């Protein structure tokens, strides 16, 4: 017999103070109740375990928040390891399906607030920032697992994230192989597709997204000048200002990984389950993000090389030079 903890949710969790509850589950009690209200009508109760939805939600949050083994979490919440795993996949799927609206592109007042935040950081007329982040995983079960081996020789999936100046996720794309360059992963995002077909529906005229040197220079996507050793003082100043404003996306990734520590190493082999878990954590990140959250920059150890030489984009270069002359 494997020793389990009886009535942990019923007897122990109610004793947590408000701050203790949030530290263990990242969400407040009210936010957990909102999640339960949203997921209640679609809760499938896998395996006919008759596991209460509260127990399932708290067990899944505990799993994502901590790096405790699946066996340890299962024992804590008085269930089997396989039951925990199946409830976790269902939970992440339902979060992505029914709570995806918590990740949305900044428009209206929220766009103005984001622009103001980037203005304060020193880079004007910015909608959001983009960057890539590697999520370490086990060797995946797929047709070409070596494609997920990145340049640092560990398996990972690429998370391409866009965030506003308040560190809230605006759009995410996850699941691409870790061997892919950030620019390649960017090309497969919905944002890139819309920028090609109808750019002003995302980025108003005279505004832009900012990214690092791994991204292409586009009229709606500003990146630093390539440092060839002959940059002018104003171009170097432009680069410093852009990088100082762009660091907000690195802070967002740092907060995400510090809140949901399971993302330091996902012990899943299915790419679809991996993508679902990462996306769910990003949604929950927006749900529980607070201005007082401590910024913790967690590097993934994989720095992309600058974007390969591209055809000269006259409009983009002219627009960047125009911004450079203004700041």
From TrEMBL:
List the cofactors.
a divalent metal cation
Can you tell which superkingdom this protein's organism belongs to? Eukaryota
Q: Which Pfam families match?
A: DDE_Tnp_4
Gene Ontology terms for molecular function: hydrolase activity; metal ion binding; nuclease activity
Identify the stretch annotated as signal peptide in this record: none
Q: Where in the numbering of this chain does the DDE Tnp4 domain appear?
A: 130-286
Q: What is its main location?
A: nucleus
* PANTHER family recorded: PTHR22930, SI:CH73-257C13.2
Name the protein family. Belongs to the HARBI1 family.
What this protein is called in its record is DDE Tnp4 domain-containing protein
Identify the species of origin.
Cyprinus carpio carpio
């Amino acid at each position: 017999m494997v020793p389990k903890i009886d009535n942990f949710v019923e007897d122990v969790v109610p004793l947590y103070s408000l701050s203790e509850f949030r530290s263990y589950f990242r969400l407040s009690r009210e936010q957990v109740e909102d999640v339960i209200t949203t997921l209640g009508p679609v809760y499938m109760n896998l395996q006919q375990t008759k596991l209460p939805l509260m127990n399932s939600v708290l067990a899944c949050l505990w799993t994502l928040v901590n790096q405790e083994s699946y066996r340890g979490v299962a024992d804590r919440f008085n269930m089997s390891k396989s039951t925990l795993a199946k409830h976790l996949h269902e939970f992440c799927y339902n979060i992505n399906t029914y709570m995806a609206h918590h990740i949305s592109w900044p428009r209206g007042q929220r766009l103005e607030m984001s622009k103001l935040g980037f203005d304060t950081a020193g880079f004007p007329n910015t909608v959001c920032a983009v960057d890539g982040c590697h999520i370490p995983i086990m060797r995946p079960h797929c047709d070409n697992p070596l494609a997920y081996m990145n340049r640092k020789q560990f398996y990972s999936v690429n998370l391409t994230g866009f965030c506003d100046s308040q560190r809230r996720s605006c759009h995410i794309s996850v699941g691409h192989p870790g061997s892919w360059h950030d620019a390649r992963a960017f090309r497969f995002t919905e944002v890139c597709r819309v920028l090609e077909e109808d750019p002003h529906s995302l980025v108003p005229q005279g505004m832009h997204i900012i990214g690092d040197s791994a991204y292409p220079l586009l009229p709606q996507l500003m990146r630093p000048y390539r440092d060839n050793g002959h940059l002018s003082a104003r171009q170097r100043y432009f680069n410093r200002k852009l990088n100082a404003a762009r660091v907000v996306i690195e802070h967002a990734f740092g907060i995400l990984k510090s809140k949901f520590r399971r993302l330091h190493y996902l012990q899943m082999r299915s790419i679809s389950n991996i993508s679902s878990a990462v996306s769910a954590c990003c949604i929950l990140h927006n749900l529980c993000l607070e201005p007082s959250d401590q910024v913790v920059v967690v590097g993934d150890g994989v720095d992309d090389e600058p974007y390969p030489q591209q055809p000269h984009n006259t409009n983009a270069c002219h627009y960047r030079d125009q911004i450079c002359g203004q700041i």
